[in-house]
Design a protein that fits this description.
With 360 residues, the protein is an alpha/beta fold. The chain is 37% helix and 18% strand. A six-stranded mixed beta sheet has the order 4-5-6-7-8-9. Strands 10-11-12-13-14-15 form a six-stranded mixed beta sheet. Strands 1-3-2 form a three-stranded antiparallel beta sheet.
Length: 360
């Protein structure tokens, strides 16, 4: 029997859970020392195909074979491969998403029973726990973290087939119990495309904000909705939509988990607004948005509120002002709307996680 290295066993263990993964992601899993040397990594991959543990398909996906499964007899696959191209693509998306989460210590499970720890439940498993999810939804799975149940999406460059109503079915209140109702979303996008993706999604949502942000409730449907290719747009029903990249994932999850405590720390004795469209708290004449975890929906609320205030000031005097607290890497997102950045009275504070304080 061929003696396999730990990194090769690591890859096979992942494939035993998720059946397949694209070739480049396989090399990423083998790169335990972060060498980024694709040639050397390809040599580490070859024994797995040579000795029939895995097979590399023409579409550059890698599937595990029976010999590979035998190394992990106690592991039951968390997904089932479909026969068509679409099914394989979805399976690969789930597998890659699980890989990203596993890199930062988040394990994948079939259910949340028996653990209160952070974990990722693939979409196929979640559908067994939650009824009423429309078939066209594109989520990869649910991330249980702290008080949240986040629907996770691998959105790449931000161009994907987005089903506004279908994704909303994850938040329906009439199906299953509260404990299986999503409380938000987590988007994982390509490295170095974060600001570009953020702008694309925010602008698409802002153009239809009266329709999308008007109400967090809607008629819950059981019939499939018409499937069309559409840009990603957000609506109030989603509650919170965090954006991150694989390299930022660890720090993003840390901020998400402590977000409510961070907001409470900034608020102190100030009054809560109880309306996400008007910020997290009010210390008159300012209303503050605390956006420490790159919540795109909160950015939309902030921009929409500021735009409305600018329009109001053209006709009436108002003491009201808005302020936003955010990490330095998100200041570029504010430049989407220069008129808001330059509006009289606007204040921007930098959030510094280590100090848990704000400053100009």
């Amino acid at each position: 029997m061929t003696k396999l290295k730990n990194k090769q066993l690591r890859l096979l263990r992942h494939l035993a859970q998720f059946e397949m993964l694209d070739y480049l992601s396989c090399l990423r899993l083998l790169d335990t020392e972060n060498t980024y040397d694709r040639v050397a990594l390809s040599y580490a991959f070859r024994p797995l195909t040579k000795h029939k543990y895995v097979r590399r398909r023409r579409d550059d996906s890698v599937i595990i074979l029976a010999k590979g499964h035998k190394l992990f007899p106690k592991i039951k696959p968390l997904i089932t491969l479909g026969g068509g191209t679409g099914g394989r693509e979805r399976a690969n998306t789930v597998s890659r998403t699980a890989m990203f989460l596993n890199e930062v210590g988040v394990e994948s499970r079939a259910s949340s029973e028996g653990t209160g720890a952070t974990c990722f439940i693939p979409s196929a498993c979640w559908r067994k726990l939650r009824t009423g999810i429309l078939s066209t939804t594109r989520f990869a799975g649910i991330l249980l973290i702290g008080e949240h149940r986040l629907a996770v999406y691998d959105i790449g460059d931000g161009n994907m087939e987005w089903q506004l109503r279908a994704e909303g079915s994850l938040f329906y209140r009439s199906y299953g119990g509260y404990e299986t109702q999503a409380t938000g979303m987590l988007f994982i996008c390509d490295e170095n495309r974060r600001e570009e993706v953020a702008e694309k999604i925010i602008r698409q949502t802002m153009w239809s904000r009266k329709q999308l942000l008007g109400s967090s409730s809607e008629v819950e449907r059981t019939r499939p909705v018409q499937y069309v290719r559409a840009p990603i747009r957000l609506k109030a029903l989603y509650e919170r939509v965090y954006l991150t990249t694989p390299s930022r994932l660890y720090e993003s999850l840390a901020e998400i988990e402590q977000e409510s405590r961070t907001i409470a720390n900034f608020r102190q004795k100030s009054a809560e607004t109880h309306d996400p469209a008007q910020g997290d708290y009010e210390a008159w004449p300012y209303r503050y948005f605390v956006n420490t975890a790159t919540d795109l929906l909160k950015f939309v609320y902030y921009f929409a509120a500021a735009k409305s205030l600018l329009a109001l000031r053209k006709e009436h005097y108002s003491e009201l002002n808005y302020a936003i607290i955010l990490p330095k890497q998100d200041f570029g997102i504010l430049r989407i709307y220069p008129d808001i950045v330059n509006m009289e009275g606007a204040e921007f504070y930098e959030y510094r996680p280590a100090e848990n304080s704000s400053s100009d």
